[in-house]
Amino acid sequence: MKKIGILFGQERSFPEAFVKRVNELAPEGIKAEFVSLNKVMQAEPLGYAVIVDRISQGVPFYRAALKNAAITGTAVINNPFWWSADEKFFNNALAVKLGIPVPKTALIPSYDRPSDTSEASFSNLAFPLDWDSIFDYTGFPAYMKPFDGGGWKDVYKLQDKEDFFDKHSQTQQTVMMLQEEIVFDQYFRCYCIGGKHVRIMPYEPRNPFHLRYQVEGPPADAALLQTIHGYVVKLNEYLGYDFNTVEFAVRDGIPYAIDFCNPAPDAEITSVGQENFDWVVETAATYAIERAQAHQDGKDNLTWGEYVRRSASGTPLQPTDTVVKAARKVKALDADKVKVAPKATKEKIAKKSKGTI
Question: What is the model's pTM?
């Protein structure tokens, strides 16, 4: 019997629906369940062919357990080794190399020194930094956010350099990014599962959390959606994520990738809505079964991204060409791939002419 497990925290609707759907779809010899850990011994398997990870980013014990499971052959979704190494600033650098538009972004050291360090620990860091060049690069208004954070936590909108220095002094030991503001006409959040299944969802980040997927407006341009689809596939191909979301802010017809390091993206029915929830449950269940069927005992069953593969072989990145070719290969989008969510009935969404991020 091949077991598919899901490791999760406080969420309930997605894990429960995922297990139920896998068990409805799976052929004989495959079953799904909630992961149960009563011991973790070095180099000993946990008994799962596949584990879908929804929580280890916040629980170091789980992350270590999943790495141990991976080395014994479990296909962990997402690869815990890459997830441990990845962060948002690197994501942006990779996108630049691939020719995918992203906001101009600079890395900012933490305001407070890390614990157990002293002034002598930073002999290689200039003081002061070349703030004028940094501010000229990103411009103002700008956004400051953690270089590896998520969930819209500790994000600041800054009006000028005085505002920057004031807010930066509040960030303690968090390494931050300073990022160009993108004044957007449209915004999209895109699920990507298995590096090939994409659902593009209109999204309004300024709405209350439970209304962000309820967007008013005309249907998006088909050519724009195809470009976004190609970018989503390319980014996840190079990052190697099996389950991720990518967000785009569209300015003057150009989709800028804003955030694409979300390997445990929100999938609760109360926030994403029924149609998006049904899609992600069905697609995740089908993909997990596919990975269980392909699983080989005792072998490396992880997904490794094209960036790692090319780095290991010494093959350079191919920037703009690969993105253009990927977009050309994308088949015409199905009508149900992109739908504007129905208008809110109980709560009217405030109309805005333009947004920023």
Answer: 0.89
